[in-house]
């Protein structure tokens, strides 16, 4: 069985108690924290920046996975790295120089990756696979938590899995958007190993019950 990781998205957490929220969700079994950055430009919503990352960083030891939904991307990458990011991903359409942005993330000591919207083709990977540590497949259009999983994402996850296997490298394959207890197994079957879940976890009072149920599904 692959190593599966569950990455709660703090977009659906209680922002007034963010330190406590990340501590609780890690205590309850989260493997990573997914940190959604939106700029009201690349996506029609505005969220959190490096200051908030710096504030939560001392509360958890697990990797923090920064998902940049911003344009442009390069100027803000060093700030997130310095604030304590472990992984930084961005949308290739939002960068004029995808290869340079990936290198910039690695130069700042983080794992680097590209994010693919539902209609974005995977060919952005063609010439940069050696600079990729993680591929993130969006199963909703980015911008908001609580949307429904777009089933066509399963085909793209499977295609990304083929590319990873062909590369012979260890690359994480993450899925983000509408992941719930009842569809996580399908995403795993398609080839995902890392699962972002916002509303499914933070929308329920008992985080451990949800995370345990997701792991049961992954083991089935
Ligand atoms: C959407 C974000 C997601 C979002 C997921 O643009 O990238 O990470 O928080 O939330 P759920 O799991 O509720 O779809
Ligand atoms: Zn995200």
TrEMBL record:
A GO CC term attached to the entry: cytoplasm
Keywords per UniProt: Calvin cycle, Carbohydrate metabolism, Cobalt, Isomerase, Manganese, Metal-binding, Zinc
Biological process annotations from GO: pentose catabolic process; pentose-phosphate shunt; reductive pentose-phosphate cycle
Keyword Manganese: yes
Coiled coil region boundaries: none
Pathway(s) of this molecule: Carbohydrate degradation
Comment on bound cofactor: Binds 1 divalent metal cation per subunit.
Reaction catalysed by this enzyme: D-ribulose 5-phosphate = D-xylulose 5-phosphate
An example molecular function term from Gene Ontology annotations: metal ion binding
Protein name: Ribulose-phosphate 3-epimerase
């Amino acid at each position: 069985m692959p190593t599966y990781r569950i990455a709660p998205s703090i977009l659906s957490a209680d922002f007034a108690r963010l330190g406590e929220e990340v501590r609780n969700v890690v205590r309850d079994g989260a493997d990573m924290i997914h940190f959604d950055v939106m700029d009201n430009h690349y996506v029609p919503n505005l969220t959190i920046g490096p200051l908030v990352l710096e504030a939560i960083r001392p509360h958890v030891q697990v990797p923090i996975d920064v998902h940049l939904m911003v344009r442009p991307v390069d100027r803000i990458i060093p700030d997130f790295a310095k604030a304590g990011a472990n992984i930084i991903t961005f949308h290739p359409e939002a960068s004029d120089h995808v290869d340079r942005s990936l290198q910039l993330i690695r130069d700042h000591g983080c794992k680097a990756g590209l994010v693919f919207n539902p209609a974005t083709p995977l060919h952005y990977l063609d010439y940069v696979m050696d600079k990729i540590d993680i591929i993130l497949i969006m199963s909703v259009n980015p911008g908001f938590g609580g949307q429904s999983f777009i089933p066509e994402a399963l085909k793209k996850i499977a295609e990304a899995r083929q590319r990873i296997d062909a590369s012979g490298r260890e690359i994480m394959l993450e899925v983000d958007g509408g992941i719930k207890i009842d569809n996580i197994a399908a995403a795993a079957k398609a080839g995902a190993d890392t699962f972002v879940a916002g509303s499914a976890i933070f929308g329920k009072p008992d985080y451990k019950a949800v995370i345990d149920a997701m792991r049961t599904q992954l083991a089935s």
